[in-house]
Amino acid sequence: MIGQEARKQILKAEGRLPNAVIACVGGGSNAIGAFYEFIKDREVKLIGVEAGGRGHALGEHAARFEGGGPGVLQGTYSYVLQDEGGQIALTHSVSAGLDYPAIGPEHALLRDEGRAEYVSATDAEALEACRMLAQMEGIIPALESAHAVAECVKRAPTMSQSDIVIVNISGRGDKDIGILRENLRF
Hints:
Elements: H1 2-14, E1 20-24, H2 29-35, E2 45-53, H3 64-67, E3 69-73, E4 76-80, H4 105-112, E5 116-122, H5 123-137, H6 143-155, E6 165-167, H7 177-183
Parallel strand pairs: 1-2, 1-6, 2-5
Antiparallel strand pairs: 3-4
C-alpha cells in the first residue's frame, strides 16, 4: 500500500514520477513495499539501504550484499551473512529493525537483475541523519528509516534541483529515544 500511496501522491504533487525511491532494508518488507509500484518504471532508481553498522568485519554490520553471500535462512534462499561453514553470523546495527542476517528474496532478485541498487549507511551516518532531520524538519524518524535519510543526504550534492526523491520514513523514532539519548548530542 505504501508504494501505491507514494506513487499517487507524487504524481498529484509533482505531475511526474520521482528520480529515485530510497528505503531502508532489513529483511526487506519496508523497502519492497515502497519499491513495488515503481519496479516497472525503469527511469526511477530504486535504492535500498542496509545497516553498515560499526565496521566491515562479520558481526559488525548487517549488510548482506556487502558482506554476505547466497545461503538459506528460515527456509528462504537469498543473501545471508554467514561464516565459511555456512553458519549464520551475528549481526550489528544501531537499529534493531535492520539487525537481521538475511534479506528478502525479492531484493536479491532486484539486485541480481540490476533493477535496484543496494548500499549501506553506518550507525554514525544514521544517527547524524536522524539528528539532522529532527533539527531541520521536526521529524524524529525511526533509526531504520534514518539509514535511508543518510543515503539521501550523501547523494544530495550530486543531484539537480529538479530531481525528486522519495525517502520512505517507515516509522517514528520515539521507540529509539533511549538509543538517541545515549548516542546524540543536540
